[in-house]
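Complex 377.
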Amino acid sequence: MADVPTADQLRRAPKVLLHDHLDGGLRPETVAELAEQTGYDALPTSDVDGVRAWFAAATEAGSLEEYLERFVHTVGVMQTADAISRVAAECAEDLAADGVVYAEVRYAPELSTQRGLALEEVVEAMLDGFARGAARAREAGNRIRIGVLLCAMRQQSRALEIAELTVKYRDAGVVGFDIAGPEAGFPPTRSLDAFEYLRRENAHFTIHAGEGFGLPSIWEAIQWCGAARLGHGVRIVDDIEFAADGTARLGRLASFVRDRRIPLEMCPCSNVHTGTVPSVAEHPIALLRRLNFRVTVNTDNRLMSQTSMSNEFRELVDTFGYSLDDLQWFTVNAMKSAFIPFDQRLALINEVIKPGYAALRSEALFGPVSAHTPALA
Ligand SMILES: O=c1[nH]cnc2c1ncn2[C@H]1C[C@H](O)[C@@H](CO)O1
Ligand SMILES: [Zn+2]
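Predicted structure with zinc ion bound:
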C-alpha cells in the first residue's frame, strides 16, 4: 500500500484550485480591521475570535440559502478599492503559502458597488491585489499564478453586463465568467443572453449547477448555456443507477458529462456545510473518480467552510485512502481544465506539477532531502 501523505507533504504538493470565492476567503483579522477602517458598523462583533466563530457557524448552515447569509459581512467590508485590493493580495499569499500554484478566484463585482464603486474599479482593485499578493508570495519563496473569474449573481439581472466586463478585461487577467448565488428558482437559462454573448466572443465560462438544485439545472447549464465546467455538479449522481452487483449505468446526461470530459469543480467540505451531501464519506467524489469523470478538488469558501486546499486533500486522504498518485490525478485534471491558454496549462503540468509530485514520491524512497543528506566534507 502507498504511504499515507503527511500534513507537510500535502502542503508542499503543488495544487490547482479552480473554484474559490474571494469574498469567502477573508482572514478574520482582516474582516475586523477593514470594518474599523471603512466605518462598517454592522459586524456582529468586533473581536477577532468572535468574527471567526460567527463565520464558522456557516459549517452548520445545512442549506445553500442559509450558508450564503454569511457573506453579508465579507461583502460589507469590501466596498472600497483599497479593501478589495488588500483582500485579493492576502488571498494570493494564503493560497501560495498552502502550496497552490495556480488558482482561479471568483467574485461578483456588483456586490462591491454599495458605496459607489464602478464595476471597472472593483475589477481593477482585484487585479491589482492579486498582482501584489503574488509578488509578495514569490518573495517568500512561493510561486503562484492567479486568474480571475467574474460572477454575476443569479438572483439579480446583471449577467450580460458582467459578461461584457469579462470580455473587456480578458487580456488583463480575467479568464472567465460564472453565475453564483441561490440555485433553486434561478435556473441558468435566466442568464442565457449572457452565455450566448460569451460564446460569440469565444470567452470561457463555468456555471454553479447541481449543488442547490438537481439534474435540470445541470442540463440547462450544459445543453442550453454551453458551460465548459460545472461548479460542484454533485447531483450528476442522480443520473447514475447501480445494479445489485455494484456496476454503474450512466444516464444520457451523466454519459454526456463524462464523454465530453466536462470538469466537475467539486468542493467536498462546502457541500457538507450546505447540506448538499450528508458527510465527506458519502460525497460522490470517490464514485465519480472511480468512474473516470473529470473530477477536480476545490475549497469554495475558505473562511465560511474553515478549509484550505491542503485540508480538502487531507479529508479525502483520511476518508478514501487516497495516495499522492490520486492527488496528482485531481491536480492534473484541474490544470487541464483551467481557462488559461493550453500551452501554459501544459507547461504548468510538465514543469511544476509532475516534478513536484515526483519529488514527494521520491521522499518515500529516500526520506526528505534535508534530513538525510550527509554534510559535505
Ligand atoms: O457554493 C456556492 N454556491 C452558490 N453561490 C455561492 C457559493 N459560494 C459562494 N457563493 C456566492 C456568495 C458570494 O457572495 C458570491 C460571489 O463570490 O458567490
Ligand atoms: Zn461556489
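The first helix runs from residue 7 to 12.
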